[in-house]
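Input/output pair, single chain:
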Amino acid sequence: MADKRDYYEVLGVSKGASGDEIKKAYRQLARKYHPDVNKEADAETKFKEVKEAYDVLSDDGQRARYDQFGHVDPNQGMGGAGGFSGNGDFGGFGDIFDMFFGGGGGRRDPNAPQRGNDLQYSMTIEFKEAVFGKETEITIPRTESCDTCAGSGAKPGTKPETCTVCHGSGQQEVVQNTPFGRMVNRRACSHCGGSGKVIKEKCGTCHGAGRVKKQRKINVRIPAGVDDGAQIRLSGEGEGGLRGGPAGDLYIVIRVKAHEFFERENDDIYCEVPLTFVQAALGDEIEIPTLTEKVKLKIPAGTQTGTYFRLKGKGVPKLRGYGQGDQHVKVTVVTPTKLSDEQKDLLRQFGGIGGESPAENQEHHESIFEKMKKAFRGE
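Output:
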């Protein structure tokens, strides 16, 4: 027994590991090395080693004896692994497969219908298209059932035949008598590749695969109010199923381009508009671009730069429910840079009376004017 690895080392846990930690480590390793999943040459040996380690360490009595005596069971002498190995058929690989992979293992019907894979498509749209919605057509590559053979893979007029090696089960069983008991190992049939069927005359279109790659055009409706990162699910527009199984779904991920003038936060719209010093000081009525039209906004006398005004119901249509968000308008007072001598004298007089001084950052305000002009043009 000197060549056997420590059971704790096999599972990758410490000697003080809890039962839950041991169980979790075993599940991960059993899934990794199960011969029906892992086709490496030493996968079966590693799987047996993991199972043996778990059988011992998951049982409090066997674990206590192992911690004291190691791989030698004092009740069985030096000749064998005793209670640590167990006897019988070791539980059967098929039963373990059922536990970890959701049923069947070697008992699944290889000819049962199988659902197609889901697909994902990324679509980039304009800011206003996300606000108001749109209908468009996209082209996606996907796998579909072959029309020539109706998905059978066989040449028209013929049909697949039952495999004579596995008799349609799709699996071969190898029985071995080992020191641990009778071992039944189930593997995919090497003759039919696990399908349970053999195609002697293959379809000339799909060459026996039963499916072909196609470019499919799909009409897509983008709902009004959709936001960046949203997903639209189109049922049955994914990859075609196998053997009459249903198609998968298509998930469209929405990416929304930024707008030069408007910014969005949930269902609300934000924008920034410039005011002259006179407009801010004396008040005015200005025209504001919204997503759908131009509206009048009254500016009270004495408005300070950075003040927000709300335009109710001028935001984004609510994706789920009724109504719309609001538009929030931030006003920024623009400082003039080109003044006549008379204007300068008047400002000096004003500054002397009220203690006011001109603002800065003219370059920023010029950019605001340009963005606002584009918004008025509907860009």
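The longest helix spans residues 19-33. Residues 165 and 228 are 55 Å apart (CA to CA).
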